[in-house]
């Protein structure tokens, strides 16, 4: 017994002696777990009930930081998507980056990370209500989208102003990355209850599924017969402006985006205006919210209304009831709420009840 006690004492002393070598670094685990039941009035001609994530994306991540002295730190971040309904994890499919951060000069990161349009998420009404309310097809990327092999710089905040610049060289393409280069910039002004954000992005080689994404059956002069038919954009250019203002315990939000899509030697333009409100995001208790998006492209229009009753049991845990409805118009145009799949007619309604926990 004495030998065992001596071994344990030596191990504890050794750990204590070694710990100062790591005292300047920190690692944190964080994430979101969201799941609920969803009813969709029409997907391809029939209603559907599902258990899934649709209020907030579910994921977990690691965030690390090592103090290098003089206000400089080495940082890293990795995030893995997870489907709470099935427990299936999708690798580190979200952010995976490493970089340097300076209190004086800003932050430089390299890896898979958000493009510059992510700065508009904070002023986007749908994101305070439900991911399903995201602008049609997310072609303006306001849901927050990742790009591989990005070099990104974010400035420090001076007098309420900060911004970012990004560049990505040509890479293999997929639906969320690019087979060509990308460049972007953003600028934010945050002062008291007001935030104003603008962002620009030009990205080459995105792969889209026009009918599956938006319910449109003709784009760039080509017919798209089913959800699986794809096209590759030579360029996708997005310019967006948005703002919110906090007043009397409420947050009022507005946003407008112009998106230019180029493929097959032709150009299409998508324009979306979004307006909405929510209860102060720092409140515990009931946080009702509602919003509306209007989108136009290629002779088609989509009008999407959404609302939520969100009750925060604490600052990290809430239960919610969400309702979304989209009406589309245009030749052969059908409704297609984000990530839900196209309807067989011009309308589509989603009702969901669920729970979210953040850690």
From TrEMBL:
Molecular function in Gene Ontology: porin activity
SUPFAM superfamilies (alphabetical): Porins
Domain of life of the source: Bacteria
Keyword Metal-binding: no
GO BP annotations, alphabetical order: monoatomic ion transport
Keyword Transport in record: yes
Chief place of localization: membrane
Domain Porin: 10-329
InterPro entries, alphabetized: Gram-neg_bact_OMP, Gram_neg_porin_domain, Porin_dom_sf, Porin_Neis
A cellular component term, taken from the record's GO annotations: cell outer membrane
Pfam families reported for this sequence: Porin_4
Subcellular location: Cell outer membrane
Signal peptide span: 1-23
Record membrane topology: Multi-pass membrane protein
Keywords of the record: Cell outer membrane, Ion transport, Membrane, Porin, Signal, Transmembrane, Transmembrane beta strand, Transport
Known partners and oligomeric status: Homotrimer.
Protein name: Outer membrane protein OmpU
Record organism: Rubrivivax gelatinosus
């Amino acid at each position: 017994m004495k030998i065992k006690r001596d071994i344990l004492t030596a191990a504890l002393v050794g750990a204590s002696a070694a710990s100062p070598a790591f005292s300047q670094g920190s690692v944190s685990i964080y994430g979101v777990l969201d799941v609920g039941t969803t009813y969709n009035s029409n997907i391809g001609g029939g209603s559907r009930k599902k258990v899934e994530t649709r209020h907030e994306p579910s994921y977990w991540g690691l965030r690390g930081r090592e103090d290098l002295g003089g206000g400089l730190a080495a940082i890293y971040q990795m995030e893995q998507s997870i489907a709470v309904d099935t427990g299936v994890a999708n690798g580190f499919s979200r952010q995976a980056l490493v970089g340097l951060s300076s209190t004086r000069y800003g932050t430089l990161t390299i890896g898979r990370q958000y493009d510059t349009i992510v700065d508009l998420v904070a002023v986007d009404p749908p994101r305070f209500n439900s991911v399903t309310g995201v602008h049609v097809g997310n072609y303006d990327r306001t849901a927050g989208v990742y790009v591989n092999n990005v070099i990104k710089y974010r400035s420090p905040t001076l007098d309420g102003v900060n911004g970012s610049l990004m560049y990505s060289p040509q890479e293999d393409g997929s639906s969320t990355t690019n087979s060509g280069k990308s460049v972007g910039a953003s600028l934010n002004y945050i002062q008291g209850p007001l935030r104003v954000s603008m962002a620009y992005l030009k990205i080459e080689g995105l792969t889209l599924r026009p009918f599956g994404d938006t319910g449109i059956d003709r784009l760039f002069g080509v017919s798209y017969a089913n959800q699986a038919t794809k096209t590759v954009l030579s360029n996708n250019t997005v310019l967006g402006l948005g703002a919110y203002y906090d007043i009397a315990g409420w947050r009022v939000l507005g946003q407008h985006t112009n998106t230019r899509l180029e493929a097959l030697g032709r150009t299409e333009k998508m324009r979306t205006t979004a307006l909405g409100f929510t209860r102060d995001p720092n409140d515990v208790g009931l946080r009702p919210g509602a919003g509306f998006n209007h989108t136009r492209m290629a002779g088609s229009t989509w009008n999407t209304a959404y609302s939520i009753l969100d009750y925060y049991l604490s600052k990290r845990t809430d239960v919610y009831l969400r309702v979304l409805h989209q009406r589309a118009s245009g030749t052969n145009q059908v409704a297609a709420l984000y990530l839900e799949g196209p309807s067989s007619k011009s309308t589509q309604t989603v009702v969901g009840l669920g729970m979210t926990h953040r850690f």
